[in-house]
Amino acid sequence: MKPHVEAYAASVQMDLRGKRLKLDNIWVNVLDPGGSHTGHIHPHCVLSGTYYVRVPDGASSLKFEDPRLPMMMAAPAPREDADEAHRRFVYVAPKAGDLLLWESWLRHEVTPNRASSARVSVSFNYRL
Fold it and tell me: Domains along the chain?
């Protein structure tokens, strides 16, 4: 996992000031049918991620929120066919074996699990 985390940090041009990212915490998520996880961020961390162990058909997506959303006030909603960069929310439907990484300040949530069995993943945070 570490090489992927280091490559991601480089790809988003993080200035680590010569320091190395350290694994802060790691946990297993078992999302039963109908389960979800409300919107949140990961304070005091730099990078967060999830490795997907088991993703049955119909399992929930990871939903990322545009951080500018609270400032958009009266802005009209984007068209339904808007490209990803202009959407207010981006949904990622993971597959077993996928590793998703993002910056910890990015608000995200897990939509309700519509599968007939549990979705299993391992999430983690890195800090400086």
Answer: 2-69+86-127 (2.60.120.620)
If we measure between CA atoms, which residue out of 35, 50, 16 comes closest to residue 116?
35
Lateral strand order in the sheet of 22-31: 22-31, 119-127, 47-54, 99-103
128 residues of the chain, pLDDT tens digit each: 899 999 999 999 999 999 999 999 999 999 999 999 999 999 999 999 999 999 999 999 999 999 998 888 888 999 999 999 999 999 999 999 999 999 999 999 999 999 999 999 999 999 99
Q: Are 67 and 75 in contact (CB under 8 A)?
A: no
Whether 23 contacts 124, CB under 8 Å: yes
